[in-house]
Amino acid sequence: EAVSFHDRMVVLFVGIVHMVFVFALRQLMIRFKQDCHAITDLQKSVSSLVEANVAGQRYAATIEDESVEAERNRITREIHDSLGYTLTNIVMLMEAAKDLAETDRERLDEFLDFARGQALDGLAETRRTLREYRAIAQPELNIITAVNRLVRMVNATTSVAVKVDYSNILWTFGNTIDEVLYRVVQEGLTNAIRHGNATRVDVLFWCDAQRIHLTVRDNGRGGANIIDGIGLSGMRERLRGLGGELTTNSSPKGFRLAVEIPDYRKYQ
């Protein structure tokens, strides 16, 4: 039978729609692949930035520690040199004064006055140096430096391997939050070592526009029941004052602490 004009138009229309659909689908697939490549490149860029940030923070923390240590060494050298010189002079003056005690009373008085002046100068110099030492003995806390020191101590004195990922966190969130974050890490490490018999602890930081996230997890001996002792209770109280939350999870694979602190910018 002859195909009607209407049927031919329907077939033509369907064909055109099919071609348009196929073309649009191909374009969507091409765009999807391009977007996937763009996302992959973006993820690589973010990863590179995070790694660079972590490396920079660790380097800065190391340099700060080295600078503080160098300053302390300088001050102890000053104490040694100035105090040693002063005491040596006083000893020599006292030895000479013994010889003058019966032969030259006038010069003896001069020697004793000079010795007294040396002692006063040495005392003033020692006090000045100790004030300098005190000023650097307790440097202002920042979270990265504080955690670095804590981790180095644990790694050096125990068989527990501690790894820290600072991710994209700031050098400091201010003393209030830094102190809380430090205590959480400290408590997490203490629990892992004393109670969990852990051999590895991972400390993970992350910061977004609204919250600070901190996780401390170990591979130690978990338990079915978690009882808040003084340590966990103390952490909850510290976090409650910041509007933060603490969650815990224990399993045969280990123990996990997770902390979130919202609106952290208002404390800076």
How does this structure look, described?
The chain has 268 residues and is α+β, with helices and mostly antiparallel strands. 65% of the residues lie in helices and 14% in strands. The protein contains five helices and five strands. A five-stranded mixed β-sheet has the order 1-2-3-5-4, covered by helices on one side. Helix 1 runs antiparallel to helix 2, helix 3 runs parallel beside helix 4 and helix 4 runs antiparallel to helix 5. The longest helix has 96 residues. The protein is elongated and about 145 Å long. The N and C termini lie far apart (85 Å). The model has no long low-confidence stretch (mean pLDDT 76).
Shape: elongated
Order of helical and strand elements:
HHHEHEEHEE
User: What is the CA-atom radius of gyration, in angstroms?
Assistant: 35 Å
Distance between the termini: 85 Å
Average pLDDT, rounded to a whole number, is: 76
Number of strands: 5
Count up the helices: 5
Q: In which range does the helix fraction lie?
A: 55-70%
Structural class based on helices, strands and sheet pairing = alpha+beta
